[in-house]
Design goal:
The protein is α+β, with helices and mostly antiparallel strands. It has one domain: Beta Barrel (Lipocalin), CATH 2.40.128. It is built from 3 helices and 10 strands.
């Protein structure tokens, strides 16, 4: 498992050094750029996979995530120079538990062959503690910034509610939220575009011998994302 995590870390580091993509965004019409902005919002949204259960004061969660997103408007994505319409996005993440059911987190990653680097942060609050019978409820607020190439820049904020029921070795969870994103085509006559995307997601977190494994599926408009994470939690 340690070798797997190291390999994923190396792959993510290589991806972070990669640049390119969206070279033809200036050729889009304003309406087409709006469609592109919807997919950018979904692809770059901060996910930070976790079951929505507080880590408590001494808790840490460090891991490597990977997502594959199938964009909703593949024709516009390709015309803009975004590359494949199934976008692979690796990320490094860390969460730290604080007092009173509050957790904080940070994430950095890349977005396929677009040349975009993403950096974000989150705050999560345990609204309702889980019991032997009922699931817990957590609220999460996220902020993300996309940078690293000349053609497109973007930023987003999000808010989610997550219900999770811890079991002995597995914690299933489900959530709903919204993401507001603003995308700009630099050096063009295209106006910046702001979009709001509602997202729903379902996943599970499993305890392994020396690590944790998390898997999640998300739907945001016409965009679908499947994600997984290998991490260490203590």
């Amino acid at each position: 498992m340690n070798r797997t995590l190291i390999a994923l870390l190396c792959a993510t580091t290589v991806s972070l050094a990669h640049a390119g993509g969206f070279d033809d965004v200036r050729r889009l019409s304003q309406d087409a750029f709006r469609e592109l902005a919807k997919d950018i919002a979904s692809v770059t949204a901060l996910r930070a996979l976790s079951p929505g259960v507080s880590l408590n004061l001494l808790g840490f969660d460090v891991g490597v995530e990977a997502s594959v997103t199938r964009v909703g408007n593949g024709d516009v994505w390709k015309r803009a120079g975004g590359g494949t319409t199934e976008v692979f996005s690796p990320r490094l993440t860390i969460h730290k538990g604080l007092a009173a059911g509050v957790d904080i987190g940070a994430s950095i990653g890349t977005v396929g062959s677009t040349g975009l680097t993403t950096a974000g942060a989150l705050v999560r609050y345990q609204v309702v503690e889980p019991t032997l019978v009922l699931p817990g409820l957590a609220a999460r607020v996220t902020a993300n910034r996309e940078f690293g190439q000349d053609q497109v820049t973007a930023r987003s904020i999000g808010a989610d509610l997550i219900a999770a029921k811890p079991l002995p070795v597995l914690t299933p969870y489900i959530g709903v939220g919204t993401v507001r994103s603003e995308s700009s085509a630099n050096g063009s006559s295209l106006a910046s575009v702001s979009v709001n995307r509602t997202r729903t997601f379902v996943g599970f977190d499993a305890k392994l011998a020396f690590a944790t494994f998390t898997a999640e599926a998300e739907k945001s408009g016409e965009t679908t994302t499947v994600s997984s994470k290998i991490g260490f939690r203590f």
